[in-house]
## 1
Amino acid sequence: MRINEIFEVIVVGGGHAGCEAALAAARMGVKTLMLNLYLDNTAMMPCNPSIGGPAKGHLVREIDALGGEMALAADTATQHLRWLNTSKGPAVRTLRAQCDPRIYSDHYRNVLLTTKNLFLHQAQATELIVEGGAVKGIKVRTGQTFWADAVILATGTYLASKIYIGLTAHKSGPLGMVAGTEFSRSLRKTGLELGRLRTDTTPRLHFDTINWDILDKQQSLSEPESFSHFGEKREHHGMFCGLTRTGVETHDAMRRYFDQSPLVQGALETEGPRYCPSIDDKVIKFPEKESHPIFLEPVSHLSREVYMQNFSTSMCIEAQIEAVKTIKGCENAHILRPGYAIEYDFVMPTQLEPWLEVKQFHNLFLAGQINGTSGYEEAGAQGLIAGINAAQRVQGKEPFVLGRDEAYIGVLIDDLVTKGTKEPYRMLTSRCEYRLILRHDNADLRLAEKGFEIGLLPETNMELLRDRWDRMEQERIRLSSVKISPSAAVNERLAAHGSSPLSEGLSVAELLLRPEISWSLAGELSESQLESDLGQRISVELKYEGYVKRQERQVEKFRRMEKLKFPENFDFAKVKGLSAEGRQKLTSVLPRTLGQASRISGIPPTDIQLLWVAIEQRRRTGEGGHSGT
């Protein structure tokens, strides 16, 4: 790298969003520079040391299917792995991995340093260079300016960030890093609308000061598994999580220090994550609850640090010490790092196109917590899409957009750019209306061809998947032809699984339609040679085929709405009869399609009907507005 060297894409930030963005752009053949505040903290895990969980695990699988890195990094660093939501059905079933943060970070850093077309440089961004309505580059603290055809901002929670521990506050990024105050001021000067959010983290305890013997222990999976479609499935031994709870004494200890609580005293003026509230917030809002579950999660085999899942807090250190010691197993626990709240600036995401480019400027893309999200997985997913689209932009290609019917990633980004957010946005399975067809197990079928077509997924990986799909199809055909005849032995096996006996022959495919029949039994009865995970996929597809077809009909209706595009420079203010709120929100968001307009919060159905008529009138008069993707 030389001073004044021009790059095609610059990525600001080395967190989960920045890493995925930089790798995606470089892998697509674009000369890319990643500016990171501190290279040793690449892909840092400042909060919980885990990847996956409900909806988040779906995002990781989708990143992997498209050609991203997060699943491989997680598999490399996994120490403890579990399936979650197993009782709620295959649509929401997903993995959650406890990862060693250092191994996870090292994986990303090594891949970044060995990727063709990618250059890394440790520097603090201080100014966004904008000329003639387009972003041209980034100025850094040491005075240099780096020029590029496109810029991706993945600045995390560093923008004008401030740490709170009790009523004590100071400017700081996560875990004592430098706050990006100058860069935040630079963004405000461009005219972008910024807001402010908050997230909290937990105290970290010393492993040896916890009484593990009196706690229930949660062990890792007993069978080999992996996040990546392309990784080696492994078992993980030697690490467990401890299960405990807060109690009345815990809550009383916290209440004694409410006079020093920034939350109670109003020192915090920002919204925290509603779906992951701090323990002090729970004590305030749910006074009738006598206890809350706590998971004690060891951070690493090589560390004695333990993360207190569900115990994030902004309380003063005295309150944290006293409250922790009232928890079963933690009576003598030593706090290595106190919990804290961090407030930071973010950019209102309704200012973005569905491909994460800022509407106000050409060539500027945003990804991750700068868009108001929380979580490593949400950040990584946005980083991947921003990296893809920055590369598409400089190569003169069309934007890459995933629909709500194609991926959780599509739901995530559509929610952000259409509805915006006033709190840290977290991906939830309940946000996804097409859960049955967007499962953890079929992310490869949904997205791998797309990743391959844009040049992100390697051909060797694509060949591996195609071979896997062929074997699944052949096995599905075979299962339809293999007949199970009634016999005492067969009926005894069925009875053991709570299933009715056979009175006549039945194909294995037909047998699998019974909800209580597992793949393990069907595979054994049919003498299947297929891998267990692929057999389970076939079982899910057969059992839910009718429901899936019903959801696919809903998707068709959805797609018709998405095909009705508003013409360029469509003036929503001139559509007669629109409600005042609808006109204001439509003018602010500027939706691309009628479907997107229908999802804007507060837009009544009557406004959608009026817009539909307006599009049709424009189409008939030849003024634009067309059906097409």
## 2
Amino acid sequence: MTFEEYQKLKDLISRHMDLYYNQDSPEISDAEYDALMRDLKAAEKEHPEWVSADSPTLRVGGSVRRENGVKIGHTVPMLSIEDLFTKEEVSDWVGKVLAAYPGCRFSVETKIDGLSMTLRYRGEGSGRMSLVLAETRGDGYTGEDVTANALTISSIPRTLPLPYPSLEVRGEVYMTREAFDRFNRIQEEKGQKQAANPRNLAAGTLRQLDPGITRERSLSFFAFNIQTGPDELMRSHSESMDVLEKAGMPVVYRESCGSAAEVLDAIDRIGDMRGSLPYDIDGAVVKIDDIALRSAFPSGAKYSSGHIAFKYPPEERVVVMDEIVTDVGRTGKLTFTGVFHDRETGGPARLCGTFVSRATLHNRDYINELKIGIGGEYLLYKSGEIIPKIKSCVKEPKEVFTPPEFCPKCGSRLKSEPGTADILCLNSACPAQISRNISYFTSVGCMNILGLGETIVDELVKEGYLSDCAGIYRLRERRDELVRAGIIGKEKNTDKILDAIERSKEASPVRLLTGLGIRNVGPSAAGTLMKKYRSLEALAAAGEEELTSLEDIGPTTARCVRDYFSDPGNLRLIEELKEAGVVTDMPEEESAGDELAGMTVAVTGTLPTLGRREANEMIERHGGKPTGSVSSKTSLLVAGEAAGSKLTKARELGVRVIDEDELRRICNEN
């Protein structure tokens, strides 16, 4: 086989991969496809020098896993863009540029809410270029090699019909709202945790070890800058974007402007587009079009010169309250949800690209303060452009909502918790509490029983299969009955969930204690308690005063722990869990060293190999104290991809910032 024949074979297989994986319209059989792949592999075995990163043999979904944590030094730093929040600031910045360089033009572009990635292309000497490397932003100077995953993103060209020896393109990886909604629907059907927003899901997806997972989640890409390239592409930014677009590279929406007034008009037009775009944007970027002039307008060491970003204020809509739904949480606390419609359209309110018709109303003090009631009109916004919240009352209702006196699920009389605005159902047999307690116990942050989500738990409780958490470990005894009933699914899915239940027995006692749902005892408090007492039996014997003496365990938490273990029913539950084989004692080798003794360590962003819980457990094993925030008392910040505001604050306070590799070196866990 000649090199030209090899290239044609690559292109043919790539076309069929696209038809099969991305368009769901294959034109050849699996056998014919396999035969083509065998020919390609044989050619690459004979001529390994022909193999490049875009070879279909490296892009088979699930068959090739990238090596995690391979670091790549950026040839051009991938810095941030300085954010401005008022149009006056934007106008002043544009004015300074024009005062120094009259006639200068600007490119105003959509600021995609995703994560940055640089693509490196290399010329093949035949009038085209091939993608050879994709790298994440990392700390701005060193990123991670994600080439295998980038090759699964259909909007990223594997080759460009350009005659240059090399080219670096920077852009944004993002997830459309449609792809995000599809992912969450699938997660809900599986009973697994749903993603909070498209940006976070995109970040986690790009860094998956299995490229097949990245492909399944349908990421997208827009180019917004050329980092390095031939002189002809390093003069005018707009012209370079035109070249990329004509070559088949998707580029961000942009407008060319020559004055402050034109720039502000473009920002307004982009802002008006937010609701109609199929993806999220969080601002508009203004760039000096003449690339050579950018270095004359630096914004600081961490920002790209010659760029600024205008951040849009939160969107707001006036809504009319239609209904207030009362429910019972897993701890017995009443929850309130407002159901409303947009005053102007009569339908759900559209905010930040999604339709909203519900918002949490927290507690009775919140309801009274905002005068929430049926028929009232309220200003709605999204906190962090994610969580819908009521900001203020626009028109008062005829009467403010009054919480019920009796539990809507079991009919028991409700009680007010002293010193709080909370209303509680104290009936431990309340069906709502049973389902929510068990669902919480099985969740990812607790015993992590994959597949056993809230929907299935509700049905198991309703049909009498479950009445408490310990009953989960007796489900295997009724396996055949469950299969016949079809509550969990057919044989395959039932066995899969039963196996997940069996594996959960080996979970850390910290997870178990968290899963018991003791009020005010989350993962952090559970870690503190188990580090001290080492077993649930020892913790159950601890007095309230003794508990209060522990760091981070206040009087309220100590009282909740003591109340829980004073209940004979809870003690029986723990004994049943122990008899079922669930681990209730911490392992002897829990402490690994004191390298972080006396240090408070925060973690932010997505780390290469460690989840947040795993990182905190490592910190604790080595004598450190994990914290969820950054302050002057913070000793270290472990920063990963998309570190965000914690990283900014750490730098402002002079807190030492390290990455996962450095944390491992400190802890001798390389």
## 3
Amino acid sequence: MHSRLTLYLFTFCAALLLTSCNITRYVPDGNYLLYGVKIKCDNKNIKSYDVEPYVRQLPNTKLFDTFPFNLALYSWSSPDTALWINRFLRKIGDAPVVYDPNMTSASEVEIKKFMANKGYESAIVTSEVKFKKKKARVTYNIESGRPYTIRKFRFAVRDSAMHNIILADSAKTLIKSGNNFDTDVLESERTRLTNLLRDNGYYEFDKQYVGVVADSTVGDHEVDLLVIVKPMKRPLGMGKYSLEKHQQYTINKVNYFALKEGTNVLDTTLLRTGLKESSYKNVTVKSNVRLIRPKALYRKTLLEPGELFNQSNIDKTYSKLTSLHIFKYQNIAPVIVGDSADHKLDLNVIMTPDKVQSISAQIEGTNNEGDFGIAGKISYTHANIFRGGEEFKLSVRGANESLIGKRTIWEVSTEASLGFPIMLMPFLTKNFIRNNNARTEVYLNFSYQIRKDYSRIIAGTGIRYKWSDSHKLNHQVDLVDFNYVYLPYMSDSLKKTISKSLLKYSYEDHLIMRTGYTLSYTTQKLNVYRNNYSVKWAIETAGNLLYGICAAANATKNDNGSYIIGKTPFAQYVKTDFDFCFRHVIDTKNTVAYHIAMGIGVPYVNSTILPFEKRYYGGGANSVRGWSARSLGPGNYNANGAIDYMKQSGDINLCLNIEYRTRLVWKLELAAFLDAGNIWTLKDEGQAEGQFKIDRFYKQIAFGYGIGLRLNFDFFVIRLDWGIKAFDPSQAAGKQWRFVPGWNITKDTALHLAVGYPF
């Protein structure tokens, strides 16, 4: 197996090497392959990725930003396109980019314009081309020179009402004295002022009415700016127009229509006589279809008669209505009504229903704790069960998760949930309801697991709140999450294994009543190729309320000194986790991701150890990938080649990862990664050297590396990662680094099939 794998890798690398020597095969004689482009600037504030879009000719994309893999595939083909293999290679590959000196000259011009827009009017842009073996490498050298800076600026607004609105919000202006004269910033300021005025009733205002006049004669490389708000142009016909004062509009009426698809909203007879009406407070819905209750609309719209027109409120209303997932189409159409002097608007909110019920069945492959298996799931969803956007879900799942592995793992589970598109909590302010897209979920779940050494039943219920605020922070509060864990069967061998260890308490019947909070934020956007990051922090605590009640009632304790409810003890602990990922985007094909995850769980008072389902484990598809799940740690613990899932768990987790992702062809991606981490216990639980010690934990950090293949469909990713052990802390001294004579790579690797990126 080892020799065969080595042969495959050698053959693949040799083929790529031979192909790389011939990537200029289809470059015409007398021409050159554009092999590389570099951008050098003497100003650290000018980033190469900001300049790159202005370069008019870029080389073929490169695998890991080093090797032109797609070009190599194209070059591997022969000119005979009658053969399917040649057509295929040319389709998935990239034709060579032939160097064009005219494009280089055009790039110099565009880069100079970019620099001028950033305030560097006197920037000098030159190019240098080096030719070698039919390859051309272009370097663009930018001497930024001294920038023009803003000395001072002021707003020129004739209308006093508009002037007061702008001055009241002037602290948010993007124009700052002393900053570079950046036309992109000026354009953003024009947009900001337009949005500000449209949010204050100026329905007909547009960005064309905001102008900027720059005076560069006031000093040496200094500019004074005058931001002008121009009067409205009212067309009079024949190419003539009049200049008028901008007017604020108030909302006269908000008309809600719930209509079947194909209904003509201009049919006045239908609108007058053919629609039913239902009302709640100031919301009246006219409809010819049972779609949504007026009370639900009242909670989801920010449109109030008598208020000034506000574009942001309309945008937020769109977002809130979309989040209900019950409309196929929705439109908010402002209409000017009454006499022109009234300056009033009617808002027509038109909603068309979408299908709200669905049944789905799926069969999936599973990879749980290193074992491959198969699972089947049937789900039913009703997205509008009470005509208020309430979503009901019911699913039943059955799985055998050890078709290939040595363990027997069967599971049958079911889950039911009801989601409300509001936060079911008293005393919430109107501003909170308006500015936060909130959701409440009530759920029930039941799971029956059968393993070789034990069987387990988990039954639970709970209620959670989710919302995102105006800062785009995502919050989740698990108000109550109650689980009962019952083990009807345990083998004698398992009882014997854990009888003298703290681990036995993890395998007893127990109750978990927990409360938790999760905060997450991301700057990542779909199909936007910019550096981004995501951060997540979670904390949960369990058993405090139950302990207080039991202590006050002087409840019964078991032999271990723990309070019990009935005959079952309850868990008491606090646990917190932190996860951060930064993604450095090199270009549209190459990204480097840096990731850190850490966590700790501390049992106390009524518990001596964390419940098994709350403990950390090392290895797996989202951890140190040279190890299969639950096969790493804790600390230096060695399970003698087996996966001892009873003992290979802990209270502390640390995981560090670096992953280089590069796009191959079509939807295929290749990744190379380095992983490090381990788990530890807080107490001596019977695992040799598994306890966390400040003076040695850093010596117990495992290292791994590997490669992965991914199918990226934008909305989801299927990946296969091959991880290899580099430093195994469970091995004896001298054998921990796995590059030793006689090392068999196939025994120190793990394959992971998973959905989604690991981080």
